[in-house]
Amino acid sequence: MKIAKALLAHYDAHARRLPWRMPPGSNEAADPYRVWLSEVMLQQTTVAAVAPYFARFTDRWPTVADLAAAADEDVMAAWAGLGYYARARNLLACARAVARDHGGSFPDTEEGLRALPGVGAYTAAAVAAIAFRRRAVVVDANVERVVARLFAIAAPLPAARPEIRDATDSITPDARAGDFAQAMMDLGATICTPRNPACGICPLRENCAACATADPAAFPVKAAKKARPHRLGHAWWIERADGHVWLVRRPDKGMLGGMRALPSSEWSAPAPPAAPPLPARWSALADPVVHVFTHFSLDLMVHVARVEGDCLPPGEGEWWPLKGLEQAGLPTLFRRAADAAMKETIQDA
Ligand code: SF4
After folding, report:
1. φ, ψ for residue 238 (rounded to 5)?
2. pLDDT-derived band of residue 348, with 50, 70 and 90 as boundaries?
3. Is 240 in the pocket of ligand 1 (CB under 6 A)?
4. 181 CA to middle of ligand 1, Å?
5. Does 343 score more than 90 pLDDT?
């Protein structure tokens, strides 16, 4: 337990102050709602990106019951820009399950948390350890990197994950497992960083196998990356002369599900046909909006047209005032498409 002892001593002196966190040694328990919300938001995203979203969410919905009672579209719009929108839908499903099935209190065991909708092994372990002070083995990307280095694990990711989890288990203390998890996350974020681990100031350097090698940053070993597939698609900016644009809501299932968006085609390779939703004098922007998702990259061709005041495009949608477009909660891809369209001079119908 040398590692836990050294790490916790370092954490007691240097813990990052974060809005969802209780300071080390605090007698007050962290609020499970805030811990859960922060953990869901932090997946695939940085603390700096999450902080303003966390502040807005907890101002507007201070308890899990408040969030459970929120309208879907308000939560999706508040989430806009954080990405990975399935998380926002799972967030709501989970809040509603806690309110409906658990009287508004999160279950206090890893197993109970794991049974909630959208709560995976990592989030359940993190909430159990941090909010309920249970012993749980918490492995996020930071912990994965630190542990792969501490033990100089030679197997490449992702195959090395079971080995990394066992190694993390072997150094997780029975007491203060939540602080230990947060201390590991802090170490990964501030000292044992991906490219330049600062071994000289690391509290674990005497116990670190990678530090004894010429290149600690070579761990975790990564399998050769597959090329990311590329897709193409079309989006249509339908602007009414009185300063409104036609927005639709994407189907609940699938990419950016449930979010407001411009009408668009399938995204595929080769390019899908550009079949506009209504006849108009369409002009295509010179450059596509290029967007990189986790599993593919996309060139979105944006077509713009201006229509008469009595036009009603087919299908469900709504005319949204251009002046209030920020409140529509467009996801980043469509916000960028909208920005590009608004720079274009549109020919009248
Ligand atoms: S000694 Fe270096 S490689 Fe090892 S955990 Fe610390 S910063 Fe990371």
Report:
1. -105, 105
2. low
3. no
4. 16
5. no
Fold (topology level) of 230-348: Nucleoside Triphosphate Pyrophosphohydrolase (3.90.79)
Regarding the beta carbon of 183 and ligand 1, being less than 6 Å apart is answered no
Domain ranges of the chain: 2-218, 230-348
CB-CB neighbours of 62 under 10 Å: 13
Is 148 a pocket residue for ligand 1 (Cβ < 6 Å)?
no
Element (H, E) at 260: strand 260-261
Query: How far is ligand 1, taken at its centre, from the CA of residue 38, in Å?
Result: 26
Choose, from 28, 39, 144, 163, the residue flagged as catalytic: 39
Residue from 2, 145, 149, 153 whose mutation best tests the ligand 1 pocket (most atoms within 8 A of CB): 149
Given ligand 1 and candidates 142, 184, 185, 208, which is best to mutate, with the most ligand atoms within 8 Å of its CB?
Answer: 208
**pTM higher than the cut 0.85:** no
* 346 has pLDDT over 70: no
Looking up tokens 């049974």 gives 115
Q: What stretches of 81-218 show up as alpha helix (H) in DSSP?
A: 86-101, 110-114, 121-132, 141-150, 161-171, 177-190
In this predicted model, what pLDDT tens digit does every residue of 46-62 receive, in sequence order?
899 999 999 999 999 99
Indicate if ligand 1 lies below 6 Å from the C-beta of 220.
no
Nearest to 236 by CA among 194, 199, 196, 283: 283
Q: Is the CB of 184 under 6 A from ligand 1?
A: no
* pLDDT for the residue 206: 95
Instruction: Please state, rounded to an integer, the average pLDDT across all residues of the chain.
Output: 93
Instruction: Count other C-beta atoms under 10 Å from residue 267's C-beta.
Output: 21
Asked about 39 being catalytic, the answer comes back as yes
Q: CB of 65 closer than 6 A to ligand 1?
A: no
Bridge partners, 292 (sequence order):
297
Q: Can you tell me whether residue 234 is helix, strand or coil?
A: strand
Domain 2-218, CATH number (from 1.10.10.10, 3.40.50.970, 1.10.340.30, 3.90.580.10): 1.10.340.30
The number of beta carbons lying within 10 Å of the beta carbon of residue 162 is 10
Q: Which residues fall within 8 angstroms of residue 66, CB to CB, at 6 or more apart? A: 60
Query: Residue 140 has what DSSP assignment?
Result: -
